[in-house]
Structures are given as C-alpha cells and as structure tokens.
Design brief:
Blueprint: E1 2-6, H1 10-21, E2 25-29, H2 33-40, H3 51-58, E3 62-63, E4 74-77, H4 92-103, E5 109-112, H5 120-124, E6 131-134, H6 144-149, E7 154-158, H7 161-170, E8 178-181, H8 183-213, H9 218-225, H10 247-260, H11 266-277, H12 281-289, E9 296-300, H13 315-325, E10 329-333, H14 338-344, E11 352-353, H15 357-362, E12 366-369, E13 387-390
Parallel strand pairs: 1-2, 1-4, 2-3, 4-5, 5-6, 7-8, 9-10, 9-12, 10-11, 12-13
Antiparallel strand pairs: 6-7
The structure holds uridine-5'-diphosphate-glucuronic acid (UGA).
Length: 402
C-alpha cells in the first residue's frame, strides 16, 4: 500500500515516519524545500524525542512536488490550521493542499488529519473527490512518537467503504480500538478530546487556587479524587495553566462555531478565561514575598512543557512580560527553548539567558519554576534561604496552587 502525506510539520513528520516504521510506503510532501533537503540527509527539523533515530532508521522520501504521490492509495493532509484573530480557523494552507490534489486529478482517498471544525471536510473536500475520510491525531508533544505507536484509540471518519477499508489497512500494524464513524463526528471527537483535557486541567487549577487560600495541598486532593475511576488520575496536575499550540486554538474555534449556531458555551468561555489568568497567579505569590522592581528574578523553564523547544502559548510568555513591566531583571534558563523565547518578542532579547539552572539560581534573588524539566528536579539546586516558587510541581514546597 502506498500513502502520501501533505504537510510535513510536526504532525505530518511524526505520522509519516512512524507509518514507515510500521511498514507503510509513505512519501511526504511539503512546500518548504529546506525541509525536503534536511529529510534527504535524514535530519529532523523539529525537536521531538526519538525522531532523529526513526529518520535514520526508516528514511522518509519527500518532495515539494505533489505528483510524487499521484499513485498513492490514500493521502493524509496534515497542514497547519492556525487561528485567525477572532478565534476562527484559518484554512489557507488546507485549501491549497486540497487544490494541489485536484490539480493532479488525484483518485485515491483524501483524508485530512489536521484539526478542522466539524463540517470542514464536507465543505472543502467531499464535493471534489470520490473517496474521502477524516482521521484526527492525538499526539502530545514530547511523547508524540510513543503516542503514535501506542494510541488510546484510532478514529476513522469516512464517506465511503474504500476509504474505510484503506484506512483500516493503514493502521493494521497498530494495536488500538478503532472508532469508525462519519466524517463530521470524527472532526468533533478531536475538539471534544482537547476541550475536555484542557477543562480537566483548569478544574485542577481552580481547585488549586481555592486550596491555596485554605492552606491545603491541592495535590493531596487531586491524588485522592483521581482514584475515582470516573475522574481518573491523568491531567489533574495543577500549576500555572496549560499552554501549547492546540488547546487555546481548538477551544476558541469551538466557541466560535458554537456562537455562529446561536449557542454561548459558558463552560468553555470560563475555561479560556481561567487559563488566561492562571499564569499571573505566580506573580501575586512572588509579590507577597518580595518587592519585584529592580530585583533579580530567575525563570527556570520557558517551554510550554518539558521535552520540547515549543513556547507557543507558554505561560512563561505572560509571566516574563508582566515581570519586565514591573521592572524586574530576568535571568532565565531552559534546556531547549531559549532561542525561541529570545526571538519571540524584542523585549525578551535583553533577558539574561544563563548557561545552566545553577547559574540562573545563583544570579537571582527569587526563582520561579515554570517548566518541570528533569534537570530542575535536583534539590541541591535550591539554597534554603532563597525564595523558590513553583509554577509546576517539582518539590511540592511552595507553589502557585500549593
Ligand atoms: C495536546 C493533547 O494532549 C494531544 O492529545 C493533542 O493531539 C494535541 O494537544 C493536539 O491537538 O495536537 P500538547 O499540547 O502537545 O497535546 O500537550 P499536553 O501534554 O496536552 O499539554 C498541554 C499543556 O497542559 C502543557 O502546558 C502542560 O504543561 C499542561 N498540563 C498538562 C497541565 O498543566 N497539567 C496537566 O495535568 C497536564
């Protein structure tokens, strides 16, 4: 079986190389010639644990020319679908990927895998191709290769039997429950999944904001409620709020489409608002301990989570901006994300980027831990007489919600 993948960003690259690892003949397509050159050298242009090894071992043939996948049995579309300013989805790349397949009169199954609102495939793909499906991804950054090979589920939305059968064949090598459904439902499952996960974290954060006032450790509470199998232990870690490129974008798009249909989704509005405010709580706690103006404040961790260099929507952005506005001198260290952070905003260029965590702590009067990298878990890093406030639970001593 032959498969094509259009859009070799994060999702496309991980999907393509893992499909090759399970024996599928996949070719990748991307408009960016630099990416194709790097792939020829078997090099990854994203930081995701395990990806370099997979590329070295399985090699991903790739091209800028969509004709290279003209004879594929199916094509997955994995281009970015960013948010417009009003939260609606920007389909520019998606539409151009679909058009490129129309231009070559492609006859196989066309299966978007980008996160797109319910109805998008039926509006922009179904009218133009005989075989159409939708196959959402549930890859979390930092563990995406693992998530691909050992998923909790595989969702296959389809219009016709050819697409259903070829998609099932594609995933034959992976052991997971398969959900077969219509395309619109498959699109909705992805939004529901992310909206639920983000809301679950926000509930933990809200509980944490309350327990902090009551002098109760939120982790003792969430560890206990997590044992209720109806609640479950995962995604109950309270802290400075969820970040990353997906949750905010997806919930905002869901709110938007809901409004278009005349329904105001109060819970998701509240989740977005709560998460907007959550990062700044750590500054309130810091302010109660020390003056901020003119003080040396250390930030340990800038990425939105460990094992990635990604800072999109990271709580560190709001926290660093607010500290600079209050006149703090910032010293920061992150094992991977310092370059991205420096280039994110001109005002971040003057931050003192340290060589390691120890140097960052030494140069600071107070330290905020913003990402739970393993390197920050060594207790010897933190002198007893220094103010250390955790935004992510590492030591459990003093933190944003504990
Ligand atoms: C998320 C979903 O977990 C994936 O299933 C989905 O495929 C992906 O979005 C997507 O739509 O592409 P991701 O954003 O990479 O994946 O990362 P998560 O592990 O979900 O973490 C998101 C944020 O929540 C991070 O800032 C993390 O620190 C925070 N978080 C997570 C918490 O604050 N508490 C927790 O208990 C768990």
């Amino acid at each position: 079986m032959k498969a094509g993948i259009i859009g070799l960003g994060y999702v496309g690259l991980i999907t393509a190389i893992n499909l090759r690892a399970i024996g599928i003949d996949v070719t990748g397509i991307d408009v960016d010639a630099k990416k194709i050159e790097l792939l020829k050298e078997k090099k990854s242009y994203i930081y995701e644990p395990g990806t370099d090894n997979l590329l070295e071992r399985y090699n991903l043939p790739a091209s800028t020319d969509v004709k290279a996948i003209a004879d594929a049995d199916l094509v997955l579309i994995t281009v970015g679908t960013p948010s417009n300013d009003d939260g609606s989805q920007n389909l520019t790349y998606f539409i151009s990927a679909v058009k490129s397949l129309q231009d070559i009169n492609y006859k196989g199954a066309v299966v978007p895998r980008s996160t797109i609102l319910p109805g998008t495939t039926d509006s922009y793909v179904t009218p133009y191709f005989e075989h159409v499906g939708y196959n959402p991804e549930f890859l979390a950054e930092g563990r995406a290769n693992e998530d691909f090979i050992h998923p909790d589920k595989i969702v296959i939305g389809y219009k016709d039997e050819y697409t259903r059968d070829i998609m099932k064949k594609l995933y034959e090598g992976i052991k997971a429950p398969i959900i077969e459904t219509d395309i619109k439902t498959a699109e909705m499952i992805k939004y529901a999944n992310n909206a639920f996960l983000a809301s679950k974290i926000s509930i933990a954060n809200e509980l944490g904001n309350i327990t902090k006032k009551l002098n109760i450790d939120v982790y003792k509470v969430t560890d206990a409620i997590g044992l209720d199998s109806r609640i479950g232990k995962k995604f109950l870690n309270a802290g400075i709020g969820w970040g990353g490129s997906c949750f905010k974008k997806d919930i905002s798009a869901l709110v938007q489409i809901s409004r278009i249909h005349g329904y105001e989704p109060e819970i998701f509005n509240a989740v977005l608002k709560q998460n907007d405010l959550q990062p700044l709580k750590i500054i309130d706690i810091l302010r109660a301990r020390t003056e901020i103006k003119g003080k040396n404040i250390g930030l340990l961790g800038l990425s939105f989570k460990p094992e990635t260099d990604d800072i999109r929507d990271a709580p560190s952005i709001k926290i660093a901006s607010a500290l600079l506005d209050e006149g703090a001198i910032i010293h920061a260290y992150d094992p991977r994300a310092m370059n991205n952070f420096k280039n994110y905003d001109d005002k971040f260029k003057n931050i003192d980027y340290c060589e390691n965590a120890k140097q960052c702590v030494e140069r600071s009067d107070a330290v905020l831990i913003l990402t739970e990298w393993n390197a920050f878990k060594d207790d010897r890093l933190y002198p007893a007489d220094k103010i250390i406030i955790e935004g992510r639970r590492i030591r459990g001593k003093e933190g944003v919600c504990w």
